[in-house]
Every structure is written in structure tokens, then in C-alpha cells.
Amino acid sequence: MSSSVEAITVLSSDGDEFKITVSAAKLSKPLNWMLEDVCFSDDCDEVPTIEVNSKTLVKVIEYCEKHAPRANSGASDSDAEELKKWDIEFMKMDVKDILFHILMAANYLHMEGLYDLACQTAADLMKGMTVSQIRKIFHIKNDFSSEEQEQLRRQHPGCSFD
Amino acid sequence: MTTTPYSSPPWEVLLLVAHHLDAKTLAIASCVSKLWSISMSSDHLWKPIFTSHFPSLSTLQHAHSSISFHRLFAIGLTASKRRRQNPAKPKLSLNDLVFVISVSTSDSLIFTLTTPCDEMVADPHSLFRFDIEISDSEWVREGLEEVKVTWNVILRGWKAVFCMMDSVGKLGFQAGSERWLSVELPTPGCCQNVVASSVVADLKLGICGGEERDGRVTVKKVSAGILNIMDWRYVSLEDGFRYLHHFLYSDS
């Protein structure tokens, strides 16, 4: 790897090209390994593919670029506060559209921070909800028969279903 | 860029998120759909939750190894709720109850009162204890006298009655004294023969009169309450209502 390279190009699973700075790519272990193994200079014709769709990859890269400076240098507490606020804003996304893709991408790319953030966001969406509210939020079809439904109610006396 | 058509979250995601859920949310999530039920019910998820919540039940799984920790947690939760059941708000209130208290000697009535609870002086600490002033009590000679004391609680509108006290005994009528009477109350609900109720109906008679009244005395004041003999405190107003509800309504 040449030290002069500041950004690398990767392909999404949809075949779109994306640029990501080297410091941001270091947030992901697999990408970091790639940086060490693959030639990323401009004259290199092999562009690595990341098995994440374009829409998701845009968000993942946005997260990496935002978090890279702090991850690489270690920042003050006020920065950490600000970054936390940014995370909350960043996670205000359509559940059905993208949250779960981000979660899987973070898992696949070994990005602990983003992974925890996405899991916690999904968990927070469920907290305090009833069964039917969760179905609504995550667009899940109730595929239990009415007998099975009755049995579930009996087995979970403390749970609110409606 | 292509957009990905949405399908419900794949099981991999559910497994990942499941680790971030608390027990209650996890239980609710396990009822969402069949896929969610499978993903959210594994022993892998529930074993640590179950053993940390109910260490005393942790040997149950050895007794029947095919039972899931998810199921064990559910029955453990139900059991613990039954133990520390928060009592429901009492259905009775002050204006539902009327006290009828009477004290008589073998040959004459000393006093009888019929007073709705909401007209009595309620305890400032919300205990089931009431003070009643008596204005029309007969005068009796100072000294030991055999009396019959009855205290009935009527459900307003004369819909039901419960006898708190019906006792005969010697009572020392002495000016400036207070006389206590107490009778054990029955256990509400089942098991009346094996479980003591540990509550008693407690009556206090305030007696005055004496020399200036030619050696005769009268009952000026009555305090009536339910006393817990485990800690010698009056039960709370709400507990008193709950107790009486058992005997004044047939549905409980």
C-alpha cells in the first residue's frame, strides 16, 4: 500500500463505485485488511467489492467519515458529546428501508460502534411496545393462527399484545 | 443506485438485535411472528436471563431437560407476580360503609349508634380507625359490669352485613378510663381453618363521669378499627376496605 493514497475506491454489491478515505476505512477490520493486501493506487484496475448495497454503503461511509477523526486521534469529551448527538440524528432512519441493512453491514464489516448503535436503535424501537405495535413498526405480518395466538397469550401473561 | 425491496428483517438480524433486548421486550418480541418466535426463544438467549432473574429456580431445567428456558422464565415470572401481587385498588370506599355499634348490660341498653363511615372522624394517617362521639349514652353505675358488645358493618343500602364483633364479657366502668375490646377476625378468602388472619376488630370505649355525676359514668367516645396483631398497628384504610370487601361482596 502506498502511503500517498488518501482515499480508496470500492464497489457496492449493486456495482456502484464509492470513495472512502483511508482513515475512515480503518474503522472496519476487513477493510483495514484489504488496505494492507490490495493495491488501491489509481492505476490499479482491480476494485474490491463490498457485499453491501449502495443505499446502505452510502450511510456506512458517512458514519465512517464522521467517526474517523475521533477514532484515529482520540478526542475530547465535548467532541464525544457532539458525536453522540450526531449518532442519534444519524440513526433517525426508516426502519424498513435501511436500519436492518446497516445492522447487517456493520456486522459484516466488523464495525463495533456502528453495530452497537444500530442494535440499540432497533432495540429501543421495540422497548415498551405491544406485540401489535412492533408488527406495525417493522411491517411484520402476524402469521399465527388464532389458536396459536391464544396459546401465546396464555404463555405470556405479562405481555401486552394489542 | 438500485433500491432494495423491503422484506421483513432476516433472522440473522433478529438474533443480533435479540441480545440487546431486556427480558420483557424479548418476551413480547417472541410473540410477533413465527420467525420472530424462533429467533427470540432460544435457550442461548434465555438461559442467562432466566438464571439471573430466578436463581432459586435454576435447578428446574435439570428436572426436565427438554423444557426451554424461555418457558421457564415465563412461569417463573408468573410465580413471582403471584407472590408479590400488588393489591387492586379497593372497590369499597368510606361512603359505602355504615357502622352499627351497640353496648348493653344484661338488662338495659347503654348506647347504640348507626353512623356512616364518611361521617366519622377518619384517622389522619389513613388507617382503618375511626373516632365516634356519643351523645346519647345511658348512665351506669361505676364498677364491673357484664356487657354485650356488637359491631356490625353494613354495606350502604343494606345490601350486606358483616359482623366484626359480638362478644360478652365483664367491663370495668370507671370514670376517666378507656376500655379496649378486641376479637380476632376471620381470614378472608380460602383456608380459613388453617391460616390465622392476624387481624382483630378493635374497639375502644372512652368512659367519663364519676363523682360529680353521683358515681355514675357514661360512654362518651368510641374508637373502632382493624388492628394487625403481627405488628400491633392499625391496618391502612385501603387494606381495611379490601378486607371487608371479601365479606360484603359475594363475587370475591
Q: Please name the two chains that share the biggest interface, counting residues whose Cβ lies under 8 Å from a Cβ on the partner chain.
A: A-B, 43 and 32 residues
- Name the beta content range of chain A: 5-15%
The gross shape of chain B turns out to be: elongated
Oligomer: heterodimer
| The named CATH superfamily of chain A | Potassium Channel Kv1.1, Chain A
Number of domains of chain A: 1
> How would you classify the helix and strand content of chain B by structural class?
alpha+beta
CATH topology title of chain A:
Potassium Channel Kv1.1, Chain A
For the record, the count of structural domains of chain B works out to 2
With strands numbered from the N-terminus, the spatial order across the biggest sheet of chain A is: 1-2
> What does the main sheet of chain A amount to?
2 strands, antiparallel
Q: N-to-C SSE series of chain B? A: HHHHHHEEEEEEEEEEEH
| Proportion of helical residues of chain A | 55-70%
The overall strand count of chain A is 2
